[in-house]
């Protein structure tokens, strides 16, 4: 519900280079349009989800709490949109210093991991409900969910730690006799550091969770196709849409990282 409104990490990661390059103005306009749309629709939308779950839903289910966490993560990362809008519209590079350069990209990376692993948790919850319904009933306790969600947030903050380490605002260049600072990836002139960051992001942020999601939902589809379950076609289609959406949103970003 909340997740589609988040700014795609590929847009955030590459917007600095778009703004500081000699790209056609159309590129800037597309980037600005995406960011404005994401912020105008996504930020109030996610705040509404948070408000609804906290103040209007009296009996919060496991699904409600998962959606709440997704909305919080998305709302936090959408706060970075004004910085990138200034970057694109101003045409003066990154004007907010090295600290904000590292912090903004770190929070975006945290959001990426939180969103991905919450989707994995939803996949596991779905798998348990269909394949192991009695075990699902025993495990679907709020205290268990709180512990798992806390673990996901802590893991996301830890997995995102390389991002600020490999971001720098200390590489100016001259454009019309004005120094332009870029908040770009910086790997200390080391191929090993570059491989470490991009391979870690690809494995922890795509390959492992995607494989987990595919395994869970493949098993669910097989069970739904049995004669014991009704409405199996509709359920299978929804699952395929979820898997496809995950791949479409994240595969291009990680393919670019690998090619680099």
TrEMBL record:
<feature type="transmembrane region" description="Helical">
    <location>
        <begin position="203"/>
        <end position="224"/>
    </location>
</feature>
<keyword id="KW-0297">G-protein coupled receptor</keyword>
<keyword id="KW-0325">Glycoprotein</keyword>
<feature type="transmembrane region" description="Helical">
    <location>
        <begin position="104"/>
        <end position="124"/>
    </location>
</feature>
<dbReference type="GO" id="GO:0007200">
    <property type="term" value="P:phospholipase C-activating G protein-coupled receptor signaling pathway"/>
</dbReference>
<dbReference type="Pfam" id="PF00001">
    <property type="entry name" value="7tm_1"/>
</dbReference>
<keyword id="KW-0675">Receptor</keyword>
<feature type="transmembrane region" description="Helical">
    <location>
        <begin position="62"/>
        <end position="84"/>
    </location>
</feature>
<feature type="transmembrane region" description="Helical">
    <location>
        <begin position="30"/>
        <end position="55"/>
    </location>
</feature>
<dbReference type="InterPro" id="IPR017452">
    <property type="entry name" value="GPCR_Rhodpsn_7TM"/>
</dbReference>
<comment type="similarity">
    <text>Belongs to the chemokine-like receptor (CMKLR) family.</text>
</comment>
<keyword id="KW-0597">Phosphoprotein</keyword>
<keyword id="KW-0807">Transducer</keyword>
<dbReference type="GO" id="GO:0005886">
    <property type="term" value="C:plasma membrane"/>
</dbReference>
<dbReference type="GO" id="GO:0007204">
    <property type="term" value="P:positive regulation of cytosolic calcium ion concentration"/>
</dbReference>
<dbReference type="InterPro" id="IPR000276">
    <property type="entry name" value="GPCR_Rhodpsn"/>
</dbReference>
<keyword id="KW-1003">Cell membrane</keyword>
<feature type="transmembrane region" description="Helical">
    <location>
        <begin position="236"/>
        <end position="256"/>
    </location>
</feature>
<feature type="domain" description="G-protein coupled receptors family 1 profile">
    <location>
        <begin position="45"/>
        <end position="260"/>
    </location>
</feature>
<protein>
    <submittedName>
        <fullName>Leukotriene B4 receptor 1-like</fullName>
    </submittedName>
</protein>
<keyword id="KW-0812">Transmembrane</keyword>
<keyword id="KW-1133">Transmembrane helix</keyword>
<dbReference type="InterPro" id="IPR000826">
    <property type="entry name" value="Formyl_rcpt-rel"/>
</dbReference>
<keyword id="KW-0472">Membrane</keyword>
<dbReference type="GO" id="GO:0006954">
    <property type="term" value="P:inflammatory response"/>
</dbReference>
<comment type="similarity">
    <text>Belongs to the G-protein coupled receptor 1 family.</text>
</comment>
<dbReference type="GO" id="GO:0004875">
    <property type="term" value="F:complement receptor activity"/>
</dbReference>
<feature type="transmembrane region" description="Helical">
    <location>
        <begin position="145"/>
        <end position="166"/>
    </location>
</feature>
<dbReference type="GO" id="GO:0004974">
    <property type="term" value="F:leukotriene receptor activity"/>
</dbReference>
